[in-house]
């Protein structure tokens, strides 16, 4: 799975076979994004040098596990997209979904806008700012986030952006159960219900990815 880069830096990971299963017809677009992220992501401060050897498995396919959970024709807001995970990856794989990438940092927004234009992603848009700046002004059916902050802080940032019967989908690490425990009061306050921790991608990836999935509001 590793390929030598001729001594220029960390060896890059070649595309795992699972990428084709996960991206379907959008695989060429996903490859084009991965190649640019591998070439320029470190220089632009989007990805650390130690991450390059696991760019596909730990980053791109880790994001792609959310794609089958997105509602057909729905609107998704990805909070703190950074270099593109998971929101841009989801925008590529699911052209039927409208994806908004919420990111405050100017340089990261410039990168995301450049990728959207280059890859001709008409369904994907950047909203520059912090999540809380959009409370009351913007709503989505589903909210995604990866590596932004602990659940206790992420819930108050994201719930006000959810439409009625909306859903939270957060990519989380092995400590997710501790995060849920620490967030009990906040989860109750924001009426977060039907909480599940899904372990996805085990068949395609070396290790499974944990997804915090929950609904918000009264039962409907
Ligand atoms: C560690 S990076 C993770 C980036 C990407 N989600 C990933 O997994 O590679 C966290 C990102 O969240 C953004 N961020 C931090 N606080 C935020 C907030 N309140 N609203 C929206 N984005 C935020 C930062 O600018 C940064 O790009």
From TrEMBL:
Gene3D superfamilies xref list: Vaccinia Virus protein VP39
Signal peptide: none
Binding positions for S-adenosyl-L-methionine per the UniProt entry: 80, 85, 131-132, 146
Pfam families: GidB
Broadest EC class assigned to this enzyme: transferase
GO CC annotations on file: cytosol
GO MF term set: rRNA (guanine-N7-)-methyltransferase activity
Subcellular location: Cytoplasm
Primary residence: cytoplasm
Keyword Transmembrane: no
Assigned protein family: Belongs to the methyltransferase superfamily. RNA methyltransferase RsmG family.
Protein's recorded name: Ribosomal RNA small subunit methyltransferase G
Gene: rsmG
